[in-house]
Amino acid sequence: MAKPTTPTFQHRLEYMGFRAVAGLMNALPIGAASAIMGFLWQVLAPFNHRHATVQKHLKDAFPEKNQAWIRQITSQHWNNLGRTMAEGLCVGKLLQQRHRITLQSQDLIDQLAQSTKGAVFVSLHMGNWELLAVPALENGLSMAGIYQRASNPLVDRYIRQVRQPLYPGGLHSKRRASVNGLIKWVRGGETVCMMGDLRQSGGIKVPFFGHLAPSTPFPAMIAEKLDVPLIAACCRRTNGCHFTIQAVEIKPGVGDTMDERVADATARLHRQFEDWIRETPEQWMWGHRRR
Fold first, then answer.
1. Fewest CB atoms within 10 A around its CB: which of 6, 56, 195, 290?
2. CB atoms closer than 10 angstroms to residue 229
3. 116-132: pLDDT as tens digits
4. pLDDT digits 0-9 by tens, 13-23
5. Which residues contact residue 227 at a Cβ distance below 8 angstroms, ignoring those fewer than 6 apart?
């Protein structure tokens, strides 16, 4: 187990600011907190160096679109990310206002809940991806989650505490030591949830928006190794602080070897991601490099 990072003075100052923002957001109605943070991000984002990066990635993905469309989608993209940040700090309120989250794939979730086999859920950074575990948990799927650890250990601890109720199987940081425990969890008939849309250095390359993108084979590898369903999941923002969640089973990969089947399943997963992104491009996180 990795040794916990000892908080520095800088960490403590950052944490004080972080908790001040979290306290303000939780003092407001969830809809107001979401709208205010979305507006602030939308206004301030053009002064951030990532603003130009987002526009470049959109242009690469949609070369047929004009500059006015690129600017509009970029602005809406920042609004969504700001809202997502505020909602992440107020996730307890969202859980108390369950009418804000609608599950569109009830039949598939029921089928998975009634099965004795585990499952691997893979999502993308769309809408408010933090909410994807809510309907699964409410329908009897006991999930374990994987997350990217925050560099500030105090902020990381707070984030874990806020998210922990959604993951009965634990919230595990993204590191090699977590792999065996997650495989054991799925082999025992439970489910694991992870993000699969970011660039993976050293990963396998699959088609994504007309280019080969280095991608993690880990979700498809677990599904193939344990013979369990691979499920793509997506959260969309529909109106302000309201969401729909959709899940689709990815067909098993084809090929003569395990590596070939994993690569094919990973490509199928990314085709589904691309379809979702093309439908609502403003809701995906465009700031990260995929090539």
1. 6
2. 20
3. 999 999 999 999 998 99
4. 999 999 999 99
5. 117
| Range in 33-37, 68-72, 180-184, 271-275 with the lowest mean pLDDT | 180-184
